Amino acid sequence: MNIAPEVLQNPATGIAGLAQAQPANATGNNKLDQDSFLRLMTTQLKFQDPFDPLDNQAMVAQLAQFSSVAGISEMKQSLSEIASILGNNRLSDAKEWIGHSILVPGNISVADKNGQYSGEFELENATDNLSIDLLNEAGEIVMFVELGQQEAGPVEFNFDSKNENGEPLDQGRLRVRVNGGSISNLATWVPVASVKTSEANGPPILVTPIGNVFPAEALKVG
User: Fold this and answer.
1) Mean per-residue pLDDT for 191-200?
2) What backbone torsions phi and psi does residue 60 show, to the nearest 5 degrees?
3) Do the beta carbons of residue 131 and residue 147 sit within 8 Å?
4) Are the C-beta atoms of 110 and 101 separated by less than 8 Å?
5) Radius of gyration from C-alpha coordinates of the chain
6) Could you say which of 24, 55, 107, 155 is the most buried, measured as most Cβ atoms within 10 Å of its Cβ?
7) What's phi and psi for 93, nearest 5 deg?
8) Which pLDDT band, with edges at 50, 70 and 90, does 197 fall under?
9) pLDDT by residue (tens digit) across 71-129?
10) How far apart are CA 30 and CA 26, in angstroms?
11) Closest by Cα among 179, 52, 206, 216 to 44
């Protein structure tokens, strides 16, 4: 069966002979991968005008270019995955956190190697009688400080815990209670004891006296 040249060369078909093969309601995913490109090229060869054949060199060059682009795309994806793994999961980098303290959101404070309980918060309004208590698990006040009049803004606190000989004293986990003002963004400094891996190639986990913390949760590093 011969195909009329005027049908093959009709610009309304876009690619020779393909318009009549597509139903009016045809849909696609608008994605041209390498397999689709090869099918398209084969169709072009099949329905090309015998009096005006497609240029072989041009088609080979086009195929080579498509393969190069596809290869670069795959390589970029692979490099992105590798970068993600190296950026989030390298224990060699995370181990540098050991021995340092990190500022994390919460109201539980622990002593560092010097026996200091530290943290900070945002005072939302000015006050005349701001005070801070540190309470043990029984709800008893272990340490407190009277700050008195304070303007709105960031407030830092630091309790120095020592024994009778002036040596650092670890009194365990203490709860921070702020009195006399409305506060937000309460956070405390906690030391990083060790680092461990997480499941499913997730980021490393920082082990602290108040529990496990992801590096992304740390507000500051000291």
Assistant:
1) 85
2) -65, -40
3) yes
4) no
5) 34
6) 155
7) -75, -45
8) confident
9) 666 666 665 655 554 444 455 566 788 889 999 999 999 999 999 999 999 999 999 99
10) 12
11) 52
> Hey, which bits of the chain come out as E strands?
101-105, 108-109, 116-123, 127-135, 141-150, 153-160, 174-179, 183-191, 194-196, 205-208, 211-213, 220-221
Domain ranges of the chain: 5-21+31-89, 93-221
- How many CA within 13 A on the CB side of residue 8? 16
Residue range 93-221, CATH number: 2.60.40.4070
Angle at 132 between CA 114 and CA 172, to 5 degrees: 40
Q: Which residues contact 201 (CB under 8 A, 6 or more apart)?
A: 85, 89
- Amino acid 42 reads T
Percentage of residues of the chain with pLDDT beyond 70? 59
How many angstroms separate the CA atoms of 115 and 68, rounded?
61
Nearest to 195 by CA among 204, 187, 185, 182: 204
Please count the other Cβ atoms lying within 10 Å of the Cβ belonging to residue 178: 20
Q: Are 183 and 127 in contact (CB under 8 A)?
A: no
For residue 54 the two structure tokens come to: 């497609």
Tokens found for residue 162? 């020592």
Residue from 165, 218, 216 nearest 191 by CA: 218
